């Protein structure tokens, strides 16, 4: 009788853990769906597309803001490591000519970046502060330099039982009077999807997929 009771208790505990784990994984998928904005975006992600979740470029002389996402066939840790390589960012950001870590603090990093947006304009150098929340999010904001304001984040959401990652990239740029807004707008529309597509390919390859 005692053996049967222990067997039943073990079975019940196993089911409970399984249901809990399944609920957690489903919650992650639900979180990703909500972060993507709507079901159409979620469906587009499944086909490998970059989806634009939010975009504000209606003001000719105002700041530009885009939020985009992509589904990457790799676990969060692989995607996190790719983004954590700050000095490797010019490899997947076309207009970024250099990136140098100026300071490694336990809570943040200061990164000096040099951006060349157009052959008509000089390169712009600025410093951004990256504040990570492992392994879910990296926030960044302009610390100093040529551009008036830069702010955004990388968000990492595990899906498909942790085998894949929804990566969301938010970027807000206000260059001030130095750069025409049309150049910023054109650069963001072109480069932001390209950045996500390159990361998708690199991370999937690193994960062996």
Secondary-structure blueprint of this entry?
Layout (H helix, E strand, L loop, with lengths): L1 H34 L3 H8 L4 E6 L7 E9 L3 H9 L11 E9 L4 E7 L8 E10 L3 E9 L3 E11 L4 E11 L6 H26 L3
Structure description:
It contains four helices and eight strands; from the N terminus they run ααββαββββββα. It is α+β, with helices and mostly antiparallel strands and 209 residues long. Strands 1-2-8-7-6-5-4-3 form an eight-stranded antiparallel sheet, sandwiched between helices. A hairpin with an 8-residue loop joins strand 4 (109-115) and strand 5. The radius of gyration is 21 Å and the shape is globular. 24% of the residues are buried. Residues 1-25 have low confidence and may be disordered.
Computed structural class: alpha+beta
Number of helices: 4
Low-pLDDT parts are 1-25
Strand order of the largest sheet: 1-2-8-7-6-5-4-3
Between the first and last Cα atoms, what is the distance in angstroms? 50 Å
Estimated radius of gyration? 21 Å
**How many E strands?**
8
Biggest sheet architecture: 8 strands, antiparallel
Order of helices and strands: HHEEHEEEEEEH
Strand content: 25-35%
Quick gist of this model?
With 209 residues, the protein is of the alpha+beta class. It contains four helices and eight strands; from the N terminus they run ααββαββββββα.
